[in-house]
Amino acid sequence: MLGLWSLSALVCASVASAARLTVSIPASPPLLPNPATLPSSAHAVLVGPPGVQYDVPIRRDSSFTFPDLAEASYLLTIHSRDHFFPPLRVDVTNAAEPAQPQTIQAWQTFRGNEWTNKGPHYGTGKGDLHIMVQPSSMKSFYAERTGFSLFSFLKSPMILMALASGVMIFGMPYLMDNMDPETKAEFEEMQKKSPMTGSQGAGAQMQNFDFAGWMAGKGAGAESGSSGGGSKRR
């Protein structure tokens, strides 16, 4: 009887000292005016030491409950289809006396930072902790089309080239008129030596080439050659 009483007392003490965490989602306008609209697929995951993980679904009252948490440090993440929630660090520590309840604390944590880097404190409880976590932002699955921007339009390489060409076309005559005679003569000499000028001259020669006359002359030369050959044979 004494052994049975000791065993029952030990079980009652362990049950009494088990930590319990409850996470509620309050109304957070304008991101989440009514938490009851959260989909049934929303769930919360509490990850502890290797091999320790708790995954609970959302309840009717828009809350998540983690009963019987052992002593450890956990990462709490809330997964939702339409909202982002901040990750939390949850620490459960045993009391000095076995019969005393465990201490449970929660802080905001930051991904990509050291585990010791804690954010705002969400609360501390003895054996039971009830905290509220609001969504941080909405999830966006579509890229918004940007409107017309004159600055982006002017940054286009084609537009810049067209503007530069327009400045050269309309500004060069004015610049030539305001040049002194010596500078103007040097500029004209440079234009004559420019390879672009030579290519333009070659293009003009090709345009003025009489292809029909060249073909007619070639045909006449061929006929005269054939007639000359016949006279020699005679």
UniProtKB/TrEMBL annotation:
Pfam families: EMC7_beta-sandw
Domain of life: Eukaryota
Domain ER membrane protein complex subunit 7 beta-sandwich: 34-161
Signal sequence bounds: 1-18
Subcellular location: Membrane
InterPro entries: Beta_sandwich_EMC7, EMC7
GO cellular component: EMC complex
Key words, A-Z: Membrane, Signal, Transmembrane, Transmembrane helix
Membrane topology: Single-pass membrane protein
Record-annotated membrane-spanning stretches: 158-176
Protein name: ER membrane protein complex subunit 7 beta-sandwich domain-containing protein
Organism: Hortaea werneckii EXF-2000
